[in-house]
Amino acid sequence: MAIYIVGDIQGCYTGLQRLLEKIDFSPINDSLIAVGDLIGRGPQPLETLNYLHSLGDSFDTVLGNHDLHLLAIYAGIRKAKPNDKLDTLLASPTLKTHINWLRHKPLALMANQDTLVTHAGLYPKWSVKKALKLSLEVSEQLQGSHWKAFLGNMYGNQPCVWQKSLQGAERLRFIVNAMTRMRFIKNRDELDFNCKTSPDQAPVNLTPWFNVTNKKLNGNQKVVFGHWASLNGRTLLQQFCGVDTGYIWGQSMTLLNLSSDEIFSVEYQDQSKPVDT
Ligand SMILES: [Mn+2]
């Protein structure tokens, strides 16, 4: 039995299937974990969710910003943009089932005893245990009867520094932003929401979150994350493994075999063209 962690799928169902074929994925023997952004911008959101949902207990995921965006569209808080490519999903009779399924997915989970999975990463002031606890605070909201009100308060860039004393909507907004949108940190502990480049092209006052010392992380612990396509997995650190390699942007989709530490990937193929077999 192997545990696989797959990078941002973003509605690229065909790419996902090519990747799973490559590893001979068996839903009976193996398990698949996604780093979030299951859908968004890619051409086959409905096929992607139908498939992942059908895997039952063999699949788990954390939520990414695009997944939360879908929930916000469903809740009437955001409007779908043409670039989201969500039309087939939004028109599907299975939409409600998928929405309820996603509402029960966390922002952070443990893939094994030492491996934390979140969409964007681990805020440098938090331990793994703390991240899991804060993820639960958001899950309570998402699963509760006031979930639409929670999503209505979720958007915004403030506060950008964590304080234990944060409460209510501000506290939840920071947790969501840190776990689903973070890339760079400035002034030691401040989330930056502007820069999306690779670290070598970023302004000097910005530090990738994984290069800010986290005193609460021990040497055995590992963080697997997605979200940052321009990083292309290059953290240069064993402890932090980026698996978003920008399939949706014409690059590749990546999967980590957590049991063996092997990386597998498939190159982008235009889905309008026939797929080689
Ligand atoms: Mn993302």
UniProtKB/TrEMBL annotation:
Molecular-function annotations in GO: bis(5'-nucleosyl)-tetraphosphatase (symmetrical) activity
InterPro entries hit by this protein: ApaH (IPR004617), Calcineurin-like_PHP (IPR004843), Metallo-depent_PP-like (IPR029052), Ser/Thr-sp_prot-phosphatase (IPR006186)
Pfam family, one: Metallophos
Domain Calcineurin-like phosphoesterase: 1-140
Domain of life: Bacteria
SUPFAM superfamilies per record: Metallo-dependent phosphatases (SSF56300)
Keyword match Hydrolase: yes
Catalysed reaction equations from the record: P(1),P(4)-bis(5'-adenosyl) tetraphosphate + H2O = 2 ADP + 2 H(+)
Swiss-Prot/TrEMBL keywords: Hydrolase
EC number(s) recorded for this UniProt protein: 3.6.1.41
Record's keyword annotation contains Hydrolase: yes
Function comment: Hydrolyzes diadenosine 5',5'''-P1,P4-tetraphosphate to yield ADP.
Family designation: Belongs to the Ap4A hydrolase family.
Protein name: bis(5'-nucleosyl)-tetraphosphatase (symmetrical)
Lineage: Bacteria, Pseudomonadati, Pseudomonadota, Gammaproteobacteria, Alteromonadales
